[in-house]
Amino acid sequence: MPEFLNPVMRKWLAVALAVIVADHLTKFWVSSALDYQEAVPVLPFFSLVLVYNTGAAFSFLADAGGWQRWFFIVVGIVATVVIVHLLKRNARDPRLALALALVLGGALGNVIDRVVLGHVVDFLYFHYRGLAWPAFNVADSAITVGAALLIWDSLRGKHVSTGKP
């Protein structure tokens, strides 16, 4: 059986798929329930708001004129290839594999938005007394948690195996 199809690898790919499904189900729900830029307060510091991001994190390059869509799609595809390679090499290290699977699912969730919609749907909005964090989504959350786990793993002295001696 090819390494890509072994049960351990399938488990981590299932985690990535679960992130993609959760991301797109929530984006579909919010897109169906809210009008563009409509905000619904949930808690004093948290609202649901439907916004579209044509840029990257914190709307980086959002007003770049359109080329950024394809740039971020290519970056997402390259990241996917690299992450799948790293995941195959590290599938038996649970914390590292979970981190990679979360980043993979989040990256693909946002790439799918860019390909299909031309932008990423964001809707989770935290704010307090005039201070606000830019709206984000489930895919962004998975990427952030995965990146934090990767940093934690690296601080513990573990290194991602690239397969090279």
List keywords for this structure.
4-stranded antiparallel β-sheet; 4 helices; 56% helix; globular
Count of beta strands: 4
Q: What percentage of the residues does DSSP assign to strands (E)?
A: 5-15%
Given as residue ranges, the uncertain stretches (5+ residues, pLDDT < 50) are: none
Q: Which term fits the overall shape? A: globular
Oligomer: single chain
Mean pLDDT: 87
Pairing-aware structural class of the strands and helices?
A: alpha+beta
Q: Helix fraction?
A: 55-70%
In sequence order, what are the helices and strands, one letter per element? HEEHHEEH
- Largest sheet strand order: 1-2-3-4
Total number of helical segments?
4
Overall radius of gyration: 17 Å
Main pleated sheet? 4 strands, antiparallel
Span between termini = 25 Å
Characterization of the model:
With about 160 residues, the protein is of the alpha+beta class. It has 4 helices and 4 strands, in the order αββααββα. It has helices at about 5-35, 65-90, 95-115, 140-155; strands at about 40-45, 45-55, 120-130, 130. A 4-stranded antiparallel beta sheet has the order 1-2-3-4. Helix 3 runs antiparallel to helix 4. The chain starts with 6 loop residues before the first helix and ends in a 10-residue tail after the last helix.
